[in-house]
Predict the 3D structure of the following.
Amino acid sequence: QVQLQESGPGLVKSSQTLSLTCTVSGGSISSGTHYWSWIRQPAGKGLEWVGRIYSTGSTNQNPSLKSRVTISVDTSKNQFSLKLSSVTAADTAVYYCARGVVVPGAHDAFDVWGQGTMVTVSS
Amino acid sequence: DIQMTQSPSSLSTSVGDRVTITCRASQSIITYLNWYQQKPGKAPKLLIFTTSNLQSGVPSRFSGSGSGTDFTLTISSLQPEDFATYYCQQSYSTLYTFGQGTKLEIK
């Protein structure tokens, strides 16, 4: 079955850029009915959707982060990535990558998740 | 943004109890409502999609209902492994949003 695994630095300095990669195994990132998302969760708090990308490269981002978020895909490596610029302590969170499965007019949900990776922004 | 509000925020319950969690959207989301279960230190797990469809492998004691702005997740007979935090999430808008979570605790 499809598995997702996040990777990247666990510590990022304030004002710098957070960079994470999600590697997809057990299936192709180029599936037409799926998209690939980043979701984050500050310690003890709820879930916040960061953004998504299709294998075509089409993206959507959370407007609250949009100017700082870049999501890209590398189909040859079966990976997608997140870059979040100008980070502050408020960006400290567990970052999850997740697969979205969408059937237009029917359903749209995150059905496979990575284990998550903790990113701390330090001053 | 579509705001999702869950109630209660926490609930002390016992094994065998019937549990109902409510999720309210700030506008109609038709039936584009999903439920996730999250255990400490783990990623969320999809339980129910599009209001009432059980994800493969999820026990039948979980069920969902609702439409428009009001939705419920029901666990018919709580099992020890069900003590967790539950989140609703709307997928009506591409700006996906989650409820704040409902934590089920052992009474």
DSSP finds no helices and eleven strands in chain A.
